[in-house]
Specification:
- By secondary structure, this protein is mainly alpha-helical.
- The chain has a single domain, classed as 3-Layer(aba) Sandwich (Rossmann fold), CATH 3.40.50.
- Helices cover 52% and strands 5% of the residues.
- The chain contains 7 helices and 2 strands, in the order E-H-E-H-H-H-H-H-H.
- A two-stranded antiparallel sheet has the order 1-2.
Length: 120
């Protein structure tokens, strides 16, 4: 599972956090949805009307891709894989919805932004 959230929803959650004095000194995580790789691919496929397949790649393989930032992204994905329970646990959907009740899920975001998703 991977927590995902739209930039608009991050802003709304952040605004709610800044307005709440009980949040001072706390570290919080937010999420608009929790999805798997195949669910993410399906949401993009449905939105764009073309087949998109999820292909799992190890962190070691990702590091070998050679583009700027590949190593950093590989580290992030490795951390997410090795610490997934805690990573997701700190990003509660219920808490996030208490901050911003109109959070959108992955499928909705993809539908609303289909033309912005590059397919080249």
């Amino acid at each position: 599972m991977l927590p995902v959230i739209s930039t608009k929803d991050i802003g709304e959650c952040a605004a709610a956090i800044f307005k709440d004095p009980s949040m001072i000194g706390k570290t919080v995580g937010v999420s608009g949805d929790m999805v798997t790789g195949p669910e993410m691919a399906k949401a993009i496929s449905d939105a764009r009307g073309v087949p998109v397949a999820y292909q799992a790649v190890t962190a070691e393989t990702f590091r070998s891709f050679g583009f700027p930032g590949a190593h950093d992204l590989a580290n992030m994905f490795q951390f997410k894989e090795e610490c997934n329970e805690g990573f997701c646990g700190r990003r509660s959907l219920e808490f996030s919805k208490s901050l911003s009740p109109n959070l959108i899920d992955m499928q909705t975001w993809c539908s609303e932004h289909a033309k912005e998703i590059p397919m080249d």
